[in-house]
Amino acid sequence: MNENPGREDQGRKNSEPRPDGVAPGHTGNLATTRSEGVALDTPAAKRIQPLTWNRRAERKHRQKNISKGVLLAAFLAGVIAAGALLFNFLTPEAPTGLEEKSASLPEAPRGPESAQRAEDQSPSLNQKAGEEGPPPVSPRTDGGMEARATKPVQPEAKTEDSSQVRGERRTKEEQFRSRMSGGLAAYHEKNYALARSELAKAKELKPDAPEVMETLAQVEAAVRLQSIGELKARAEEGEASEAWEKAYDAYVAALNLDQALQFAAQGRERTLERMHLDKRLEFYLQKPESLDSDDYLARAIELLARAERIEGKGPRLNRQVETLKGLVREAQKQVTVTLLSDNFTEVSVYRVGKLGRFFARELLLRPGRYTIVGTRDGYKDVRQEILVKPDTSPLQVNIACREKV
Asked: What structural domains does the chain harbor?
């Protein structure tokens, strides 16, 4: 039986290990313990035991974190792979090389969420391969699955359509360039009809193309200049041949193309005057009997004077002038006409006047038709018509009223 129980309890308390790793019975610092004669190796062994236990726990904790990191990396790799497959499926015009690369990549470990996404995408992949499968479903936020009907995708048909459109555009562009080249070549060769045709077809392919409009404007300007040149040559040819109507029409057509053409304006006035002169000369040449009238004879003489003033007369005008001069000279010749009467009859001659009563009367008459009328009270009137010609010999005419009423 221990005589000192208090000391025994105290020794038992001191022998129990402290939670802070300090040796039991340690009430001060290490130096004090050493001074009290306590062995140094015993407290050191008791302090190592908790340190050994802490490192082991820390190593387990690190291993657990590494496992979690590996799982997280595998999950992310599965999500990326599923996203690549989905993008490849939703992009019909993507190059087929991307599918081959994705197929050749090693399959990464999947997490539960990535596996679920792959299962959701598998019907679309089956439909792309031409297989029939259930309609794709999309996950709902409440954890359930909602059926989602989608229109079947036909990337191959779209690819063919897009390639066909590109082919048509390329063909249209080639046709446009061909028409433009043909039109420009014809324009430089002055084949304006062909240039117009080619450029019109190019305009049908591209109605708003500025190069077509500019080239067409150049062609139209060249055509107009060419037409003006042709009309000018035709007018000059008409004037040279004294075909005044032909020349006049050519000058008028040139002015219709461009009102500012001075040569056409002057030529129109000149040919108009010559055309009127030619028509009047031809009138007297075709109807020389019109010169029997004093008025027409005076106009013919005036017309001859006007024609004589023209410089550079052509053969036609010279012939007309000379012929009309001869007709005027013949019309101006006077022929002696002797009128015989009974000195009781009143005699008058149309275009000459009243002559009165006489036995004989001589008149100098120009060539032409004359009407002689005799009147007497109680007697019937007499009328006689004579034709005076320039080459006839002197005429003698009897005019008297002898029949009673």
From this structure: 33-133 (no CATH), 229-331 (1.25.40), 333-398 (2.60.40.1120)
